[in-house]
Amino acid sequence: MTSRQRKYAELCFDAAERAPPEERQDLLDMAKVWLELAVEGQRAMVGEEMSLNRWQDITIECNGRVITGTYCVSDWMITVKIDGGGIKSTQLESAPPETLAKLLLDELAQMTR
Known about the structure:
Number of strands: 4
């Protein structure tokens, strides 16, 4: 169990104890997810096939243009390359990898305008 995920789970459990009843279950569910991530490791979140440094194609629309690139997940990091140059990486957190990849690709597209 990694210390970061364990700490996030503890924070969620603490918040659940103080939260109004209608918010308590959401916080407990979130704590459970963090604990599962800590126990299962990266594969629990991104899937075994993506943890093998396999590049995935990604496409978005940005200001009426179709933007293509690739992304890869490895060791809790996601890296996105835009076709025609440019690369950007960030730490993988709770959002799905494809969602983060699209955000990073959009940032790269904005930078290359």
